[in-house]
Design goal:
The protein has helices spanning 17-31, 51-74, 93-104, 126-134, 165-181, 194-205, 223-226, 241-258; strands at 6-10, 34-42, 83-90, 108-112, 139-142, 152-157, 185-190, 209-213, 230-234. The protein has 259 residues and is α/β, with parallel strands linked by helices. Strands 3-2-1-4-5-9-8-6-7 form a nine-stranded mixed beta sheet, sandwiched between helices. The chain starts with 5 loop residues before the first strand and ends with a helix.
Length: 259
């Protein structure tokens, strides 16, 4: 995780965006970070329009989104934190969020967990699942519950045979950075006890946030809802410039060899 300097909050009208904003403010105060409130409208209603009609429909939706974001920003009482707004339209909400994250490269993305199921086994929404799999920045899915003054952070590592060394290092770096910045406590667990046992551990130890790797098989479709606390999903490290040059060289040599 890069130094926590820029946080994007995904704001949705249909979910509790206020809780995600409040969590972002708390974290931003610890790190001195800037917050951007971002919302994305899907273009389903615009898909069948064309030309000027499509442009007008898109402009109208963006204007409505900005009014929503301005109202959300106005509801935040945090003069010590800077907040900006940004709105976009995309074919799907998750695609728009992922595209925006790739462009602005935030230190952290925060989104309210959207319960698409029923208790006692809530399910993440389709947008949540898509972000878990594709978001290129660390993603914090939050229930909005307040963290303790010294938050308890649990780094969940997969079995060594299932988690690459670089991924484990990235996960631990993110967990340590969050714990240090928030003056929290960090513990490390190895995967293996199952979701129910993990949920019991979270409740007994009053864990505030679990940190997991994005492609960890422990992160099943029900995991984010089953553990009962905030979840920080850490993507794999981006390839270095040297690795990218190496891949490009291999491809180029392969193409040359076929000619």
């Amino acid at each position: 995780m890069n130094r926590m300097s820029f946080i994007v909050v995904v704001a949705e009208r249909a979910s509790g965006s206020n809780v995600a904003v409040h969590k972002a403010v708390m974290i931003a105060r610890h790190f001195g970070a800037h917050i951007e409130l971002f919302t994305c409208e899907d273009e389903h209603g615009i898909a069948y329009a064309a030309g000027a009609a499509a442009d007008a429909a898109r402009a109208s939706r963006l204007a409505e989104s900005r009014r929503f974001l301005e109202a959300l920003r106005g509801s935040v009482s945090a003069r010590d934190v800077t907040l900006s707004i940004q709105a976009a339209c995309a074919p799907t909400v998750s695609a728009g969020i992922c595209r925006h994250v790739r462009i602005v490269k935030p230190s952290l993305v925060i989104k309210s967990f959207t319960d698409a199921g029923v208790q006692p086994a809530p399910l993440p929404s389709i947008t949540d699942l898509n972000l878990i799999r594709a978001c290129s920045a660390p993603l914090l899915l939050t229930y909005g519950r307040s963290w303790s003054p010294s938050p308890k952070i649990c780094a969940l590592l997969a079995a060594e045979s299932k988690l690459a060394r670089g991924d484990a290092a990235e996960l631990m770096a993110a967990a340590e950075h969050l714990a240090e910045g928030c003056h929290g406590e960090l513990e490390v667990l190895r995967e293996g006890q199952g979701e129910e046992a993990l949920a019991r551990h979270v409740a007994k130890q009053r864990i505030d946030v679990i940190v997991v790797a994005a492609h960890d098989r422990a992160l099943t479709d029900t995991f984010a809802g089953a553990v009962g606390c905030d979840v920080l999903i850490v993507p794999p490290p981006a390839p270095s410039a040297g690795v990218l040059r190496g891949v490009a060289s291999v491809v180029a040599n392969s193409v040359h060899g076929q000619n």
